[in-house]
Amino acid sequence: MTDVVSESKAIRLKGRSFLALVLTPELPFEDWLARLDDLAARSAGFFLRRPIVLDVQNLDVDRAQLRTMIDQLTARNVRIMGLENARASMLAPDLPPALTDGRAASDFEPPAQSASGETSQTSQPQPAYEREPSHNHFATAMPSLTVTEPVRSGQSLVFPDGDVTVVGSVASGAEIIAGGSIHIYGALRGRALAGTMGNASARIFCRKLEAELIAIDGFYKTAEDMESELRGQAVQIWLEGEAIVAETLS
């Protein structure tokens, strides 16, 4: 009798790089949670369906306190995928795993809720785009991405490599996330997050400011925080220290 040797198919392993929102809690934790609740209330669905890492560096808590913290975040639909800068004494099999070597990133926003309270889904196809060579004359060239049609509600465009230019408008409930600056040749009604890879010199330009949220290098403003005289105007937005500054374009 001849033995039949079956050939097993090798498991294919692939590398992937994902952007994640990093939360850095502060003590007293109850006060930090209150600020988190305020942010979520002003930007509907802020944490839904997003990969979130909890940075616990310099946080003087034990394992039981960390577990309680994660439970309270989970109750708010904030799902923690991993812990960064966690001491060995904080870790346990029932807690998220320790993560290392993450690159700095800014906050992520999910699709906004509709007036009926239902969360918008990304049902539309992603905008067509083309990558363009950089024309930056400085020492470090940065690639750019051009979006040739409007960004619709529920769509999320992420380009961590450089600048994003939208030849059109960004609808309410849509978001643009760029490692560099963001240029919008239309109305900005959704969310724009520039400098998400730690680029504090990034800027946001738009023809008509009606944004739900703007952010540069992790510092943000919601619609309620923006100066009323800038609404509906062509503006440029940049960062001075930890303050977001805006002015109209002539």
Automatic annotation (TrEMBL):
Which InterPro entries does the record cross-reference, listed alphabetically? Answer: CAP/MinC_C, MinC, MinC_C_sf, Septum_form_inhib_MinC_C
Top-rank lineage group of the source organism: Bacteria
Q: Where is the composition biased (Polar residues)?
A: 113-126
GO annotation, biological process: cell morphogenesis; division septum assembly; regulation of cell septum assembly
Keyword tags: Cell cycle, Cell division, Septation
- Region (Disordered) residue ranges read 94-132
- Subunit structure of this entry? Interacts with MinD and FtsZ.
PANTHER family given in the database record:
SEPTUM SITE-DETERMINING PROTEIN MINC (PTHR34108)
As for family, the record states: Belongs to the MinC family.
As for what it does, the entry says: Cell division inhibitor that blocks the formation of polar Z ring septums. Rapidly oscillates between the poles of the cell to destabilize FtsZ filaments that have formed before they mature into polar Z rings. Prevents FtsZ polymerization.
Per its record, how is this protein called by name?
Probable septum site-determining protein MinC
